[in-house]
Every structure is written in C-alpha cells, then in structure tokens.
Amino acid sequence: MKRREFLKNSGMVCLGAVAGGSMLASCSKVYYASFSVENKSIKISKSEFEDRDSVIIKDDRLPAPIYIVQEGDGYSAVLMLCTHKECEVTPFGQELHCPCHGSEFTNKGQVITGPAEDDLKKFKVTSDANFIYIT
Ligand code: FES
Q1: Where does ligand 1 bind, in terms of residues with CB under 6 Å?
Q2: Of 107, 66, 63, 57, residue with least CA distance to 86
Q3: Residue bearing the CA closest to ligand 1, atom 4
Q4: Which residues are paired to 124 by β-bridges?
Q5: How many distinct structural domains can be found in the chain?
Q6: Does residue 123 form part of some domain?
Q7: Which of 76, 95, 119, 124 has the fewest Cβ atoms surrounding its Cβ within 10 A?
C-alpha cells in the first residue's frame, strides 16, 4: 500500500488529554473501510475487520460517518452525529466522545454522559458469509 493510500484509509485520532499526560491511552487508530452501495444498503466486506474490531464509513452522502463495531459474530453501526447539537463524535478507546460539550457514548451508541440525552442513531446490520449490509 502506498503512503498516500495508507494515509487516506487510516488515521490517528487523539483527543485533548495531552495535558493529563495520558495521550497514548487516549489515542485510537481509526480505519476508513471500503464499501459499496447496493439496493439502498451499504455493503462492506467482512475482510475489513480482519485486524480490527471497528471501522468507519465516510461518504459525502451521509450526514456524518458511520461507526461499525464487530463483537463476536455480530455487528453494530451508529451514526457519528451527537444527539445533543449534532457535532461529529470521535472514537476514544471503546467509546465515542463528543468534542463540543463532552457527551460520551458506548461504541454501540448508548449515552454514558450528557448533555446528550438520546442515544446515537443506530442502523440495522445484517450479514452473510462474506459481507455485512447496513440499512
Ligand atoms: S453537540 Fe455533542 S455534547 Fe453538545
């Protein structure tokens, strides 16, 4: 993989814990998965999860990226748009954090800490032997 392609498909997300000296603990690698759209579903190869348990889908047609987590044989997908005032949330360890006012969510979108009161929007996820489908 060429450097430019690598930088496009992966990234490092670090939130402002530098002052606390825990920068490494607060950094999460994110991976932008390849996907296609078929019959109004987002189709992702299961091979995208070979070396990771979460991926992000980013597309201009979406209001925010979609965060997809694999747990065992199952998958969950949430819209990375904070339900408080619609800032984009960021992966932070096993959680998603909002940089605007501090709301925290589980990686499946459930509110942990407000001010957001509602969970992140969840998508239906189905799968077959080789692909997962988000609708
Ligand atoms: S917009 Fe996310 S906490 Fe306010």
Answers
A1: 82, 84-85, 87, 98, 100-103, 115-116
A2: 63
A3: 101
A4: none
A5: 1
A6: yes
A7: 124
